[in-house]
Amino acid sequence: QLAGLAVVAFGLWLRFGGAMADFATDKKSPEYFFMGLYVLVGTGALMTTIGCFGCCGAARESQCLIGAFFACLLVIFAAEITAGVFAFIGKKVAIQEAQKIYEDVYEDYMKNPVGKENSTMYHYHVALQCCGKGNVEQQMGLPCPENVQKDKASNCLVEIHNIIDANLHLVGIAGIAIAGTTIFGMIFSMVLCCAIRNMRDMI
Q1: Does residue 5 have a pLDDT over 50?
Q2: Within 13 Å of residue 195, how many CA atoms lie on the same side as its CB?
Q3: What count of Cα atoms within 13 Å lies in the side-chain half-sphere of residue 70?
Q4: Hey, which of 23, 143, 176, 178 would disulfide with 122, CB 3.0 to 4.6 Å?
């Protein structure tokens, strides 16, 4: 249950906290990235829920509940491995999607650099701590945070790549790490189930 809550908290933090959350506020969002997070959060919620099967099964020495607990852990294990592999393999596509979102916003701003377009562009620059796409001359006319130095180091496309690369590595590592923990849960549940069966046979 604690592991499940940790996974849910971690997934929600990546989804709604930090720079990546700002991509979801727009009509377009890097679906490939968030899809992995949704799998991770759903898996964590399922882990927390079925933790009751394990607790009740152990307390009542019920083979049925422990068997159900094992079956659910097996499903969770498959989901976690999927999320982990999905995060590593889909990294390039997620980065391209996120960069395309910024480029669309950039083009909209260049066509109409006032009103909502100005606010949206500034919003992305604050979240990503960057300014433009690396062209110093173009950056001079962009709404950028004062604390961001307007040079090639503040290229937003590079920052998007770095942020998604780091976050997807975290998703992949978390998914595979929790999957390892799930294996131990399955092993112990089967050992307990066999122990209960042997005890009843002896009685």
Answers
A1: yes
A2: 10
A3: 17
A4: 143
Per domain, the residue ranges of the chain are 1-60
Q: Counting Cβ atoms within 10 Å, is residue 166 exposed (0-12), middle (13-18) or buried (19+)?
A: exposed
Task: Tell me what the pLDDT averaged over the chain comes to.
Answer: 75
pLDDT digits over 40-50, tens only? 788 778 878 88
**To which residue do tokens 């500034």 refer?**
122
In the DSSP assignment, the letter for residue 114 is S
* The length of the chain, given as a count of residues: 203
Residue pair 40/156 in contact by the 8 Å Cβ criterion: no
Residue range 29-38: mean pLDDT, rounded: 64
- The answer to whether residues 174 and 40 touch, using CB atoms and an 8 Å cutoff, is yes
Q: Give the tens place of pLDDT for each residue, 117-167.
A: 577 778 778 777 788 776 665 566 677 777 766 554 568 888 888 887 877
Burial class (CB in 10 A: 0-12, 13-18, 19+), 80: buried
| 93 token code pair | 């596509």
